[in-house]
Amino acid sequence: MNPLFEHQQEINRRSVLGRAATGVGAAALATLLKEDGIAEQITAGGPSDSNSKKAAEQRFGGISSLPHFAPKAKRVIYLFQNGAPTHVDLFDWKPELQRRHQEPVPSSYIQNRRFSTMTGAADGKLLLAPVEPFSQRGESGAWVSDFMPHTAKVVDDLCFVKSLHTEQVNHAPAINFNLSGGEMPGRPTLGAWLSYGLGTATQELPSFVVMTSITKDTTCGQIFYDFYWGSGFLPSRYQGVKLRGSGDPVLYVSNPKGMSREMRRDWLDDIAAINQIKLEQTGDPEIATRIAQYEMSFRMQASVPELADLSDESQETLDLYGPGVTEPGTFAHNCLMARRLAERGCGFIQLMHAGWDQHNSLTTELYNQCRDTDQPSAALVQDLKQRGMLDDTLVIWGGEFGRTPFLQGDINNRARWGRDHHPYAYTVWMAGGGVKPGISYGQTDDLGINVAENPVHVHDFQATLLHLLGIEHERFTYRFQGRQFRLTDVHGNVIRDILA
Predict the structure, then answer these.
(1) Model confidence over 53-95: pLDDT tens digits?
(2) Which residue blocks in 309-430 are alpha helix, DSSP H?
(3) Low-confidence ranges of the chain (pLDDT < 50)
(4) Which residue segments constitute the domains of the chain, with CATH numbers given?
(5) Where are the beta strands (DSSP E) in 185-328?
(6) Please, what sign has the CA dihedral across residues 427, 432, 434, 440?
(7) DSSP conformation letters of 424-472
(8) What separation in angstroms does the CA of 133 have from each of 130, 145, 402, 405?
(9) Residue among 55, 53, 35, 57 nearest 45 (CA)
(10) Residue 12 has what pLDDT?
(11) What are 234-285's pLDDT values in tens digits?
């Protein structure tokens, strides 16, 4: 059966009323027809001061009632480390763990704790000391492992949150929970929520961009599922646009031979006119998405080649990011591209680097991961700071959970040491965008197993991120299947102690 005919057959009185003047399709169409305006969408509240109103006027698209108050951050760069970095080997120094190396984990620390099937019951597992030594760094005295010498140099610009905890013990559900607030696929991710709510500062590039990378020859890479940057029940125009690591950053960004830019423009105008007719007939918001995405693709034919051309970067900047910066597909290259995207108005840039899942390769793979990510991550913070962009750019570094302070494997076979998944305590760091620099917030117990002070749930972390962007997380909602949904579900408290 013809899909359009099927769609028309399903239209009833309720759906017609829902697609009337205040319907989602009409709102999407209004956004397209008035590119320099702000679409009214389904949410409560409004700007509380003239500064937030002025910021809203400078955006394309978005919700007119956002931001709720003047934001500290204008954009986010999320350096997501797939596979879960080991907090006790990188940033969470525990002298007691060092002293009790090879002792069985005390049962009092793991009572009623669920671990992955690779560990099963944790009783009897041996505690494992940090692989490399720690030192206090900078004026803040933050403890950082020798694994991260470049990050150690910028600790006074960082805010470490050492008391995060989550609810899932396996990668995909935990990553999805971190990025969308739900363990199952189908909810909008952070970037999609922000693209929908805040709009964009540029019409030449997507507001939500994703880049992925993986350490070469790694044996513990993670799959990059498309739902990690999906739009869920929001219109699909808000999903992340993935830039590729080889060839053209975007497929078909170049016109085929014989197709001039003028000819492409004429074709798109005709296609848009046909789609406009269908949109008016059906009110299907995905048709509005199609119109918008065709237009974005046309603009990207000019903007993406300029974005990817690094010839205007100084040698000093390239050296700052380290080896591999000019090689598309590397984490170093993606970090530099993230800064260039931020400069050009992109609002949410999500870098995902896989290879941190060290079940039996802690003494080999962890060195490779840190070698590939340490210098570029620190360089991004330095580069943004030098350009005066760090104050209003929020940089986040972290994974979906931590790794067990006890050993997975044979203590007598150092080459195969590993750590299992650990959702009960882990560390992330943040920089810029309205967070206090040079502090460590929260604390784990003396073995790094459980949160001992100032616990931060994933929903608290999400609420804080939205707050830094001028959004009250409880008021930022979208109606779907009869209820108001939000990123933080029905949870979340802003971590005010880390706000600058």
Answers:
(1) 444 446 788 999 999 999 999 999 999 999 999 999 999 999 9
(2) 315-321, 331-343, 365-386
(3) 1-7, 9-10, 14, 16-57
(4) 36-258+312-498 (3.40.720)
(5) 208-214, 241-242
(6) positive
(7) S-EEEEEESTTBPSSEEE-EE-TTSSSEEES-EEHHHHHHHHHHHTT--
(8) 7, 6, 18, 15
(9) 53
(10) 53
(11) 999 999 999 988 777 777 677 778 778 888 788 788 888 898 898 888 888 8
Res 48: pLDDT:
44
Note the residue count of the chain.
500
Query: How much is the pLDDT for 25?
Result: 44
DSSP 12-37: -HHHHHHTSTTSHHHHHHHHHHSTTS
Instruction: Give dist(CA 387, CA 375) in Å, integer.
Output: 18
* Beta carbons of 203 and 233 less than 8 angstroms apart: no
Of the candidates 148, 184, 187, which has an alpha carbon nearest to the alpha carbon of residue 167?
Answer: 184
d(CA 326, CA 336): 9
> Which residues lie below 8 Å from residue 441, measured CB to CB, with a gap of 6+?
159, 160, 161, 162, 163, 454, 456, 495, 497, 498
Lookup: tokens for 158 = 């960082």
Residue 43: what pLDDT? 42
Question: Would you state the structure tokens that stand for residue 217, as one six-digit string?
Answer: 């020859």
Q: Which of 381, 431, 427 lies closest to 405, judged by CA?
A: 427
Q: Which two structure tokens, joined as six digits, stand for 163?
A: 């008391």
Rounded CA gap, 9 and 11, in Å? 6
Which tokens is 326 given? 């000019």
User: Rounded to an integer, what distance in angstroms lies between the CA atom of residue 373 and that of residue 69?
Assistant: 35
Residue entry with tokens 């359009």: 4
Residue 35's pLDDT is: 43
